[in-house]
Amino acid sequence: MSRVSRSALIxxxxxxxxxxxxxxxxxxxxxxxxxxxxxxxxxxxxKLLMDEIGNGPASxxxxxxxxxAPEAKLGALxxxxxxxxxxxxxxxxxxxxxxxxLQLDSDLLPYRYLLSPTLDTQTFxxxxxxxxxxxxxxxxxxxxxxxxxDLLPRDPTLEVLKLAQxxxxxxxxxxxxxxxxxxxxxxxxxxxxxxxxxxxxxxTAAIDSLQTKFSALPDVGDAKLTITGPGYFGAKLAATxxxxxxxxxxxxTIGFLILLLVAYRSFAVIALVGLPLASGALxxxxxxxxxxxxxxxxTLAFGFTLLGVAQEYPIRVFSHRRNxxxxxxxxxxxxxxxxxxxxSACIAYVAFFASGVPGLQQLAVFTIVGLLVAGMAxxxxxxxxxxxxxxxxxTLPFIERVRVVLSAMPKPRWLxxxxxxxxxxxxxxxxxxxxxxxxxxxxxxxAAELQREGxxxxxxxxxxxxxxxxLEADSADGVLALSERISPQVEKLIxxxxxxxxxxxxxxxxxxxxxxxxxxxxxxxxxxxxxxxDALRDLPFxxxxxxxxxxxxxxxxxxxxxxxxxxxxxxxxxRLQAMLTQRGxxxxxxxxxxxxxxxxxxxxxxxxxxxxxxxxxxxxSESLVMQYRTRIxxxxxxxxxxxxxxVAVALRDPRRxxxxxxxxxxxxxxxxxxxxxSGVSLSLFHLVAVTLAAGLGLHYALFFERPxxxxxxxxxxxxxxxxxxxxxxxxxxxLATSSLPVLRAIGLTVALGVxxxxxxxxxxxxxxxxxx
Length: 772
Prior knowledge:
Layout (H helix, E strand, L loop, with lengths): L2 H25 L1 E3 L12 H12 L5 E7 L3 H16 L4 E5 L16 H4 L2 H4 L4 H14 L5 H5 L9 H9 L6 E3 L2 E3 L5 E7 L6 H16 L8 E5 L1 H35 L2 H26 L1 E3 H10 L5 H8 L7 H27 L4 H24 L15 H12 L5 H16 L17 H14 L6 E7 L2 H10 L1 H9 L5 E3 L8 H9 L4 H11 L11 H11 L6 H4 L5 H7 E4 L2 E9 L4 H9 L4 E5 H35 L2 H24 L6 H21 L6 H25 L5 H24 L8
Parallel strand pairs: 1-8
Antiparallel strand pairs: 2-6, 2-7, 3-6, 4-5, 9-12, 9-13, 10-12, 11-12
């Protein structure tokens, strides 16, 4: 094949890959819900945990502060921003203390007498109405008169405002300039997003829209917007991780290309080395789209990292070409080991598919399909495209010098056993816990940011994000009735200062029985009209001023009780919907806490009340992580056994198989020992990284165990291995410098693993004294 033909085919291959990438990108949905990387929930509490993490009443709140300007200006900015956000489809509810936030929907307004607790202790008799109207006389003479003028004829007992007070946080912020303010003089606001808190894409869109609308406000000047909350932290983590990964990957890619130029002295190699990898990546992506219908963003990030193993396949082809053989003959000579390396790596990633976790199953499909396609492309599509002129690696002087140095190194048989003992002791004596169960430790959120979030949460009276009161019944109305039944005990918790506030579902919607009881206490029109006339005798109101009030009460007497579905369509409905959830035939209600001071008192409430328990989200998440890890460890154990069997069958020599499996296993143990001695508790990301390092290490051990009868072939093996090792250490060593715990864990683990695997593969390889 001529040089022009080869160049044309290379360009065509890249063109087809680009076209395929364009088609796939337009037809594949990228998911951002991090719950895909959590294990399937098994218990009701775990299912509630997964819902709460993404859609819970506390997790979807963005806490907002506006500072850096006089109070009057901050109040105006808060009002203007709130008005814009209420029309924003990214948000379901905006609260900043304005009275506009406390108005009932017109459809809900007649239900105020069924929703308000007034009729639990009062009746609309002459005495009650006279007392209320006497108070209104004082109100209309106060600064609040403008707000009451439109409301008073229809609602003289101010049930709307009573409901507003009931639905406002118990520890409401200070109100100045008509909006909430913090003790630090900042205007405060709560924004509830429609998107799940565990969906970085949705949270990022909401935050970007919020910031854009704030920047577009007139006279912003030096005013500063502060946003915090679970959704903000998730969006920031996703953006920071993506930015750092892209930056470090770009640096690593440039370094890798320079390494290829130094190692092979050919620009053609750069155009060729990425073809198998890109082909495998697109095949893996298409497989996920067909099998799952969508691709998780983390799958892409981790998948391309894991698929980096495939870059070593063309490197082996480049390094093992011989001057005395055709390209096909050179590739055929190393293909049995390359094939075994591909199959072995795929076996390792089967463990992730067996985990039962959707995200990891996607990762397994992506990696396995990608490795198989990359291997086949390296074997059959790449060789015909290689340039005819090349530098035989065996002729490079420095490789021979390296070989001589490595051959002269002592290889005592006792050294691996000593390292094994040291590693086991280090693992056993390490002072820190073996496993990292606290997911918050894996985030890069600073202590200052967490402290700021706590300050705003306290100032706003926002719900605690750790504890939930879970109520269980056979219907939504049963949950509301149970919520009402435990309300007296909840009030005792508040009065004893165990908590600042407990928000129950019945705060928003009473049970059907309670609504009917209140409805039954509403007098008929004639009776109410007489009571109202008697109450007005010595008051300065016109006799017919309250006709709308009479109409509303008469209408309320005929209403059907308000259901949770109906209430869910109102302005405040999103809040209740977040607190009610159905699982199979059972319904669950979620009560939230603010200002928890005595968790044991909460547990005592649950212990003394049937169908009520406390859900500690931190404890539940740690329990879920432990179950998750156990499942993955079991799957990895099975994969290791299958891997050993595959190597033994392929090599047909137990001794050679031992010299491949032993260095890989010992190197993995040494990596874990170094991490433990360094005070690192192991997480899921370390397990993923250890698996990747083991796949790379197996590759090195296989080629060092390859029987050769010439020094030239030894030099080619060493050359290919050195290029693979240096490229892996370069790329993952850069990740180890990341400020993000997840990227740092992956980078450090793989870089250490590659170094240990390389050294032990040389140390434990069988001696070859017959080469010449």
